[in-house]
Specification:
Radius of gyration of chain A: 13 Å
Largest sheet of chain A: 7 strands, mixed
Number of strands of chain A: 11
Largest interface: A-B, 21 and 20 residues
Strand content of chain A: over 45%
Oligomer: heterodimer
Structural class of chain B: mainly beta
Shape of chain B: globular
Structural class of chain A: mainly beta
Helix content of chain A: under 10%
Number of strands of chain B: 11
Shape of chain A: globular
Strand content of chain B: over 45%
Radius of gyration of chain B: 13 Å
Distance between the termini of chain A: 37 Å
Chain lengths: 116, 109
């Protein structure tokens, strides 16, 4: 099946710093990628929909200036957590859609962010 | 509003069969997905149903009734490695996925 790679898997940073997480579709082109956040024992929460070549669409309550998303190519989307704080510590997961709007979603491995 | 309901937790015995139910109310319907998620890992795709009926894939089967807003995931010959959370998600009329909170399945020897 299609592969989505996410990097880094783990990151620990100091409060106030920025962290960039990459999401790559390795063997297919993804015009649409999704970014999720998942707190322990909770379901996935969609943060934003990333469309190649255009601005991301953010879900209600997600600060676009804090969570910067760039989808510069058909195989790469990045999420930058700016001025991270301990409450931003979470499991961030990206997914990419294969083919059409009803195409299967493939998930990256996830990135666990810990902000000290 | 849109919502997906599934049980929070279920327990079953190794070798047995378990059925995880999911009911939904969404604005439009473009298919229902089941994903498996082990603790600390990203979800992996299990099944996709867009037409009524049963889809069988090895030990896992998924059923859909659009008129009832209902689906279930059936796991047969349970193995310890099946202990995980199972997420139900519905694609609405805008092709956005609406996620359930997940069902934690505990398998006992």
């Amino acid at each position: 099946g299609a592969v989505v790679s996410q990097h880094p898997s783990w990151v620990i940073c100091k409060s106030g710093t920025s962290v960039k997480i990459e999401c790559r579709s390795l063997d297919f082109q993804a015009t649409t990628m999704f970014w999720y956040r998942q707190f322990p024992k909770q379901s996935l929460m969609l943060m934003a929909t990333s469309n190649e070549g255009s601005k991301a669409t953010y879900e209600q309550g997600v600060e676009k200036d804090k969570f910067l998303i760039n989808h510069a190519s058909l195989t790469l989307s990045t999420l930058t957590v700016t001025s991270a704080h301990p409450e931003d510590s979470s499991f961030y997961i990206c997914s990419a859609r294969l083919g059409s709007e009803t195409g299967e979603l493939f998930f990256g491995e996830g990135s666990r962010l810990t902000v000290l | 509003g849109q919502n997906i309901d599934q049980p929070t937790e279920m327990t079953a015995t190794e070798g047995a069969i378990v059925q995880i139910n999911c009911t939904y109310q969404t604005s439009g319907f473009n298919g229902l997905f089941w994903y498996q998620q082990h603790a600390g890992e990203a979800p992996t795709f299990l099944s996709y149903n867009v037409l009524d009926g049963l889809e069988e894939k090895g030990r896992f089967s998924s059923f859909l009734s659009r008129s009832k807003g209902y689906s279930y995931l059936l796991l047969k010959e349970l193995q310890m490695k099946d202990s995980a959370s199972y997420l139900c998600a519905v694609m609405d009329s805008n092709y956005q996925l609406i996620w359930g909170a997940g069902t934690k399945l505990i398998i006992k020897p």
